[in-house]
Amino acid sequence: xxxxxxxxxxxxxxxxxxxxxxxxxxxxxxxxxxxxxxxxxxxxxxxxxxxxxxxxxxxxxxxxxxxxxxxxxxxxxxxxxxxxxxxxxxxxxxxxxxxxxxxxxxxxxxxxxxxxxxxxxxxxxxxxxxxxxxxxxxxxxxxxxxxxxxxxxxxxxxxxxxxxxxxxxxxxxxxxxxxxxxxxxxxxxxxxxxxxxxxxxxxxxxxxxxxxxxxxxxxxxxxxxxxxxxxxxxxxxxxxxxxxxxxxxxxxxxxxxxxxxxxxxxxxxxxxxxxxxxxxxxxxxxxxxxxxxxxxxxxxxxxxxxxxxxxxxxxxxxxxxxxxxxxxxxxxxxxxxxxxxxxxxxxxxxxxxxxxxxxxxxxxxxxxxxxxxxxxxxxxxxxxxxxxxxxxxxxxxxxxxxxxxxxxxxxxxxxxxxxxxxxxxxxxxxxxxxxxxxxxxxxxxxxxxxxxxxxxxxxxxxxxxxxx
Length: 468
Ligand SMILES: Cc1cc2nc3c(=O)[nH]c(=O)nc-3n(C[C@H](O)[C@H](O)[C@H](O)COP(=O)(O)OP(=O)(O)OC[C@H]3O[C@@H](n4cnc5c(N)ncnc54)[C@H](O)[C@@H]3O)c2cc1C
Ligand code: FES
Ligand code: FES
Description:
It is a single chain. With 468 residues, the chain is α+β, with helices and mostly antiparallel strands. Among the domains are: 1-171, Beta-grasp domain (Ubiquitin-like (UB roll)), CATH 3.10.20; 353-468, 2-Layer Sandwich (Enolase-like, domain 1). Helices cover 31% and strands 22% of the residues. It is built from 15 helices and 19 strands. The protein has helices at residues 25-30, 94-101, 111-121, 129-136, 146-156, 190-199, 212-217, 253-263, 265-271, 277-280, 285-290, 298-304, 401-407, 414-427, 438-465, and strands at 5-9, 12-16, 51-55, 61-65, 78-80, 175-179, 182-186, 204-206, 225-228, 238-240, 244-248, 308-313, 316-321, 326-328, 331-332, 339-346, 352-359, 370-379, 382-391. The strands form five sheets. It has a five-stranded mixed β-sheet. Strands 10-11-16-12-13 form a five-stranded antiparallel β-sheet. Strands 6-7-9-8 form a four-stranded mixed β-sheet, covered by helices on one side. A hairpin with a 2-residue loop joins β1 (5-9) and β2 (12-16). Mean pLDDT is 94; it is low at 464-468.
């Protein structure tokens, strides 16, 4: 096992030993490195002022929030900050020059974050305006207004900066850090991960850290033992079989997006609204499920799609359907030492349609008040099969079976929807909180079922005319 983090800061190799494994990259940059170009705004992944770029061995440039990234995530990677962009003679980088030319900065506090998001975006295919807006949705600016910044992006993101794979410091073997009474492990394989979790069953698993990071920065929790999924290569895969999409628990939203979007366009659209690009470059669907928040966005869609989880403890695996995974408010069937290895999402069969919706106060970068997802099969105008998932309507993500039962076997028409809406009131008991009142949530939940009907009733007619 190695006892030091090896990474590259700009062009210089760094070895970090005796470092707090829950120190954030932002604290590290602004503290020991005295690199203050990267700003701290919110310290919770919301404002983008701390955006830096992580480069992997494959050359991928990911914009990430340094404020919720623990330093072990740097291992084997290159870290680029705004300080690394200017040329040796101090010449501005083209991204910086475009921001100057388009008057994209006033007070300048947000500017390093925008510049780093644009720097990462330049390594992708030429984005259109919508893609630029999406890439910048996690960067907030108080004074300039976004039009000049988006104009700068359109000038400079021409799809010509294809990243070259960079030779990074070799990192062989599991990283094991010890700092005071804290320990941290970054295993390389799922087998090693399983073994470490048997030895430390109460360890905190850190996948993307976009939830766990806030436990440290906002709740000031001490995490005595952390186990990172960052280097576990065999948990990062996303693959399609004949009837299933298999998502490794270490795969990020951004990794899973192409296949999910191809098969379930609505789910893809929802994922594009989870947090920001910086959050989706780190956050995982596995973490979203294990976190067991009643307002996590992916569980309702996955409930409707009848997803199942492969759970593993040591060498023992079990498969649990997602509708049996949540046992109470932030409670799951996971036992100490057990982890989610994989998420299996069945593909739609012929004739099935899928819809999902997220309702939040802001379109981007906001947790939902209510989420709803529906997978249904209508034959001859009759509901032959329906599965529903709701978020924000109970202490856990919920599959309201009473509503499914009320719809099954009935004509797919407005009268049926009105009847099922009445059933909803007894099937779901939402809370009032700062995001929404219980009455608002009930109203939205009813309306989302109606919306699904209105969007799919034509498809129902088509199905009726088609031979079955
Ligand atoms: C600014 C911001 C915006 C956000 N916006 C949204 C949003 O729009 N919608 C939304 O749903 N969420 C949102 N989130 C929450 C968060 O990004 C998601 O829940 C994300 O999916 C968590 O994944 P992660 O990999 O970062 O999990 P982590 O933070 O690494 O872990 C979360 C929990 O899951 C456990 N865990 C992780 N992986 C496993 C595993 N394989 N097996 C067992 N346990 C595991 C961890 O121990 C921890 O308890 C947001 C967060 C931030 C900071
Ligand atoms: S400081 Fe606001 S996102 Fe990091
Ligand atoms: S320029 Fe002031 S916050 Fe953006």
